[in-house]
Amino acid sequence: MIIRIVKMQFREEHLEEFKNIFEATRPKILEFGCHRVNLFEQEGDATTLFTISHWDSQSDLDNYRNSELFGHVWKQTKSLFLKPASAWSLSLVS
C-alpha cells in the first residue's frame, strides 16, 4: 500500500473552486486503485490544504498520475496555487 500526501497552498479567493474540483474528481480517482482520498485543512491556516490518498500500489498511483484525468485536474488546480505544491509517497515500514 502507498500513501500519497500532497500539500497545496491556495489563494484565498480560490479555495471554494478547488474544493469543488476535488469533490467532483474524487469518485473518478477511486477508479484507479485508490482506496480513499481525503482533503484536510491545516489548523489555523485555511489556505493550506492536504490530500491524503491510499493506493494499492505505486503502479496504480503512476497510472493515475499519467492519466488524462490527472493532466486535466492538475492543470486546473495549479492555476489556483499561491505556492508550488509539495508531495510525498509513503510505504508502511512497521
Total count of domains: 1
How do the helices and strands follow one another from N- to C-terminus? EHEEHHE
Alpha-carbon Rg, integer? 13 Å
- Determine the N-to-C terminus distance: 12 Å
Mean pLDDT: 97
Class by SSE composition: alpha+beta
Strand content: 35-45%
What profile does the largest beta sheet have?
4 strands, antiparallel
Number of strands: 4
CATH class: Alpha Beta
CATH topology: Alpha-Beta Plaits
* CATH level-two architecture: 2-Layer Sandwich
Report low-confidence residues grouped into runs of 5 or more: none
Largest sheet: spatial strand order:
2-3-1-4
**Tertiary shape:** globular
Total helices: the number is: 3
Helix content: 25-40%
Verbal overview:
This protein has 94 residues and is of the alpha+beta class. It has a single domain, classed as 2-Layer Sandwich (Alpha-Beta Plaits). The protein contains three helices and four strands. The chain has a four-stranded antiparallel beta sheet. α1 runs antiparallel to α3 (68-78).
What are the salient characteristics of this protein?
alpha+beta; 4 strands; 4-stranded antiparallel sheet; 3 helices; Alpha-Beta Plaits; single chain; 94 residues
Helices and strands, with pairings:
Layout: E1 2-10, H1 15-29, E2 34-42, E3 45-55, H2 58-65, H3 68-78, E4 81-91
Antiparallel strand pairs: 1-3, 1-4, 2-3
What's the short story on this structure?
This protein is α+β, with helices and mostly antiparallel strands. The protein is built from three helices and four strands, in the order βαββααβ.
